[in-house]
Amino acid sequence: xxxxxxxxxxxxxxxxxxxxxxxxxxxxxxxxxxxxxxxxxxxxxxxxxxxxxxxxxxxxxxxxxxxxxxxxxxxxxxxxxxxxxxxx
Length: 88
Fold this sequence. Notes:
By secondary structure, the chain is mainly α. About 75% of the residues lie in helices and about 0% in strands. The protein is built from 5 helices and no strands. Helix 1 (about 5-15) crosses helix 2 (about 20-25).
């Protein structure tokens, strides 16, 4: 499922509104196929707790930080290798 759709549903819930296909579609930040919207709203109505499983997680920003730290380590290794090459 598309987390953008579940973010729109969460925004509606935060406003105290009941998510419907039309309301959810109006809150989307980007175009999403109608079957995805219908499936997300149906899933929410069948199991309201399911929204917590599909929303954007803070872990996504953690993975970005992980990639950044990996890049930093690679750059440090490259700097050491270049330094060794320059010494020869």
